[in-house]
């Protein structure tokens, strides 16, 4: 009898050793109308066919499978059941969740705010999302106050908004440095690239491993950062050729490196923030144009009539160039411009001395240089 027991134990040991590791996704769905509907598991790489599906019964569903290599995935209902909606970066859309799938037991709650827990990577993302949501809520309330007709209220709100924006950047920076070997962190770096300085992004990429760098968008970001290094502060400006409003071919070097401080302003007539900033540029130009200061506008317009109308309506009197290729503007590509307005300030010799100066920051810099 003892031999039989030993043999049975040995068989069970062999079975356990030969079983493949697996994952289990145990889900809860808070919305009763979604009972009887299927929830789908998708790879984040854009493939339309779902990897798996499960029927929601009594507010719950279960998926099982095998995933030896961690993969970025999304759980969601079909779009005819739950319509897609835009949400702030880093947040899950209602009744949808982005997470890293690996062989472990995962607990999912699909709700107006969805969460995934069960592994250190997914737990960390859930904690970060809660923190981001709180900051976004406060920033949303302040944004309304910033539109107030009362200037004193608007200025106080704007200062608090900037403080929260800095707090969000700090929270993200800490998370990304602490998870530089994780897929989800790589995805979030790409999503929040506008919230982090160029230097911080480079530091994170330098620390990141191959898993982090395999996240969607990170390869594009690495290429973009390489372009930005060529036009970083301290480097000589990069020249290009473009036409002015009269159709005459001009070089950027016709203006830059000719003994004046030059502000290269990437803008477009259709860009509200650009139009809002233009009075500040006009005032700076009026004050300093006879003191060794020049502006060269590089328009990302694609319609010449709209471009010329924007110049007239905004009272722009400094040189303007464009290839009318919109976001495919060749000059913008050389300077890594992916949002506008974007400005680059060069010294008398054409060396880049500052970037992204606006409003009071630009005024302060010009006063320092041209006093």
Characteristic key phrases:
Glutaredoxin; alpha+beta; 3 domains; Immunoglobulin-like; 371 residues; four-stranded mixed sheet; elongated
Can you describe what's shown?
About 4% of the residues have low confidence. Helix content is 41%, strand content 20%. The protein folds into 3 domains: 97 residues, Immunoglobulins (Immunoglobulin-like), CATH 2.60.40.10; 110 residues, no CATH class; 130 residues, Glutaredoxin. It is elongated, with a radius of gyration of 27 Å. The longest helix has 28 residues. The chain contains 11 helices and 15 strands. Helix 8 packs parallel to helix 11. With 371 residues, it is α+β, with helices and mostly antiparallel strands. The chain has a 5-stranded mixed sheet, with helices on one face.
Please specify the SSE layout and strand pairing.
Blueprint lengths: L1 H17 L4 E7 L8 E6 L8 E4 L4 E6 L5 E7 L18 E6 L3 E6 L4 E3 L2 H27 L4 H28 L4 H9 L6 H10 L2 H4 L4 H13 L10 E3 L5 E3 L9 E7 L4 H17 L4 E7 L4 H10 L6 E2 L8 H5 L7 E5 L5 E4 L3 H12 L1
Parallel strand pairs: 1-7, 11-12, 12-13
Antiparallel strand pairs: 1-4, 2-3, 2-5, 5-6, 7-8, 9-10, 11-14, 14-15
Can you summarize this structure?
The chain is of the alpha+beta class and 371 residues long.
């Amino acid at each position: 009898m003892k031999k039989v027991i030993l043999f049975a134990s040995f068989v069970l040991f062999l079975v356990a050793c030969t079983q493949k590791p697996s994952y289990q996704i145990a889900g809860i769905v808070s919305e009763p109308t979604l009972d009887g509907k299927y929830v789908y598991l998708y790879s984040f790489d854009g493939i339309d066919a779902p990897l798996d599906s499960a029927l929601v019964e009594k507010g719950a569903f279960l998926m099982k499978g095998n995933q030896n290599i961690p993969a970025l995935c999304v759980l969601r209902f079909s779009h005819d059941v739950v319509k897609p909606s835009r949400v702030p970066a880093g947040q899950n859309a209602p009744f949808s969740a982005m997470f890293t799938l690996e062989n472990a037991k995962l607990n999912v709650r699909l709700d107006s705010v969805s969460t995934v827990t069960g592994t250190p990577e997914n737990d960390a993302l859930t904690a970060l999302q809660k923190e981001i949501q709180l900051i976004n809520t406060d920033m949303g309330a302040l944004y309304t106050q910033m539109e107030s007709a009362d200037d004193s209220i608007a200025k106080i709100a704007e200062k608090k908004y900037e403080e929260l924006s800095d707090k969000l950047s700090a929270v993200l920076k800490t998370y990304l440095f602490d998870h530089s070997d994780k897929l989800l962190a790589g995805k979030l770096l790409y999503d929040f690239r506008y919230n982090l300085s160029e230097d911080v992004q480079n530091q994170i990429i330098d620390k990141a491993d191959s898993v982090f760098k395999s996240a969607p968008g990170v390869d594009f970001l690495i290429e973009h950062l390489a372009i930005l290094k060529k036009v970083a502060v301290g480097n000589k400006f990069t020249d290009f050729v473009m036409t002015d409003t009269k159709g005459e071919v001009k070089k950027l070097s016709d203006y830059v490196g000719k003994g004046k401080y030059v502000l290269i302003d990437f803008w477009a007539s259709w860009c509200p923030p650009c139009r809002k900033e233009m009075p500040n540029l006009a005032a700076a130009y009026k004050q300093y144009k006879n003191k060794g200061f020049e502006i060269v506008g590089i328009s990302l317009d694609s319609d010449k009539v709209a471009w010329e109308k924007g110049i007239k309506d905004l009272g722009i009197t400094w040189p303007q160039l464009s290839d009318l290729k919109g976001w495919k503007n060749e000059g913008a590509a050389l300077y890594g411009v992916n949002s506008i307005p974007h400005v680059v300030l060069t010294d008398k010799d054409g060396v880049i001395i500052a970037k992204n100066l606006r409003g009071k920051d630009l005024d302060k810099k010009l006063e320092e240089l041209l006093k």
